Amino acid sequence: MRKSRLVVLFLILALMVVFLLGCSQQAEAPGGEAPEPGVETPEEPAQEPLRVALMLSGPISDQGWNATAYNGLMRIEEELGLEVAFVEQLDLSDIPEVVRNFATQGFDIIIGHGFQFGDPIVAIHQEFPDVKFVVTSSTITAEPNVSSLNNDNWQQGFLAGSFSALMTETGKVGAVAGLEIPSITAYVEGYEAGVRYISEDIEYNTVFTGDFYDAVRAKESAVAMINSGVDIIAHDADAAGLGVIEAAKEMNVPVIGAIIDQHEAAPEVVITSALSNLSDGIFAFVKGLTEGEEFHVEPYMMGINEGVVGLAPYHDFEDRVPEEVKTRMAEILDLLASESIPRS
User: Fold this and answer.
1) Region 234-247 average pLDDT
2) Under 8 Å between Cβ of 227 and 174
3) Contact 252, 277 (CB under 8 A)
4) 5-49, pLDDT tens digit by residue?
5) 8 A C-beta contact, residue 255 and residue 268
6) Sheet holding 83-87, edge to edge
7) Quick one: pLDDT at residue 36?
C-alpha cells in the first residue's frame, strides 16, 4: 500500500515538472523575458508630432517680409497638421525671453525670421540642445543645433534692376531699401548690377532709409526720386515699402513690389514684384524634418532654382509690358538660375 502511494506521488511530481518546463519554454520571449499570461507585448510609442514656433520682428500684416513667413507657418499648420505658434513685432531685447518660453513649452523647432535673430539665438542655443533653431535671411550657424535659411536677395535685386532698366523712358530709375543689413545690401547690389547689365548709360539712385517700419520716410525718399526724373521705382523695405507704393500711386509712376506679389496693394501702379518668398522655403524645411530628413547645421541658400526668388505676373500691365521685355526677362531668369551672370 505504501509502495503504491509512493509511485503515485512520483508520477504526480514528474507531471508537474514536465508541465512547468513546457510553460516556461512557451512563455519565454526572444530576449529571454517572459510576458505575463494574457498580456500583449506593448508596441513602441508613436513619435509626437513636431511643434513649430516663429518669431517675427514686424507685423504679419506688412504685406511683405513678415507676412511671407507667417504664410509659411500657416501652411505648416494646415498641410502638415503640426502645432504652431508665433510672436510678432518682437523687440530685439525680448528675443532671449521668448526663445526660452518657446523652448520650455516643448517646441521642437524655433524660427527667427530675420538676420537680427542670429546673435541672440547663438548666445543661448546651448541651453536647449534638443531644440532645432533656424535663422532666416542669414548664413549664421552654430553647433549643435542652429541652422539658417537665406533667400538670394542679390538675384531678387537683379531682377528688379534689370526690369527697371528695360522699362524706363527717362533713363533714370531708383530703389528704396530699408535697414542696411547684409540681406538688404545684397538686394541693392543686385539691383545696381541688374541696371548696369542692361545699360551703363542708365542712371540709378538707391537709398537706405535705415528702418523697416517708417513708411513716411520711405515715401519721402520715393517722392524725391520721382521728382528727380525716376519713372519706375522699386523697393525692398518691408512694411515701410508700403510708403513707396503710396508715393508711386499718388504720382502715377510704376512701382516694383518686393518679397511677395504686391499687386493688390495698388493694382494701378504695381507693375510686378521681385519675389523673395521664403514661405515655400520654410515649409519645405519643416516638411523635410517631418519626413525623417536629418537636421544639418549649415546655411541653406534659396533662390530661383528653389522657387523662392522670381518675378511676379504683370497683372494689369500685361498689355503694357512690351513682348521683347518679357522675353528678355525670361532669358535673365534662366541665366541667373544657371549662374551664367557673374555677381559683382
Assistant:
1) 96
2) no
3) no
4) 544 444 454 555 444 445 444 444 444 454 455 555 555 555 689
5) no
6) 83-87, 51-56, 109-113, 132-136, 146-151, 299-302
7) 54
User: What is the four-CA torsion angle of 63, 299, 288, 85, rounded to 10 degrees?
Assistant: -50
What angle, 0 to 180 degrees and rounded to 10, lies between the N-to-C axes of helices 215-227 and 241-251? 40
258, 63 Cβ separation under 8 angstroms: no
d(CA 5, CA 25): 31
- CA atoms 174, 175, 181, 185: torsion sign: negative
C-alpha distance from residue 97 to each of 103, 111, 222 (Å): 10, 14, 37
CA 21 – CA 261 distance, rounded (Å): 76
Considering only residues 64 and 263, tell me which one the structure prediction assigns the higher pLDDT.
Answer: 263
Query: DSSP 3-state assignment of 302?
Result: strand
Q: Say whether pLDDT at 148 is over 70.
A: yes
Cis peptide bond N-terminal to 299, omega within 30: no
The model's pLDDT over 306-342, given as tens digits with 9 standing for 90+, comes to 889 999 999 999 999 999 999 999 999 999 999 999 9
Residue 125 CB contacts under 8 Å (≥ 6 apart), including other chains: 131, 133, 142, 145, 146
**pTM score, whole prediction:** 0.80
Return the ∠ at Cα 248 (arms to 243 and 251), rounded to 5°.
125
Gyration radius of the chain's alpha carbons: 31
* Enclosing H/E stretch for 286: helix 278-290
Q: Taking phi first (over 0 means left), then psi (-120 to 50 degrees means alpha), and beta for anything else, what does residue 60 get?
A: alpha
Burial class (CB in 10 A: 0-12, 13-18, 19+), 110: buried
pLDDT band at 63; cut points 50, 70, 90: confident
Q: For residue 283, what are the β-bridge partners?
A: none
Cell of 158: 537683379
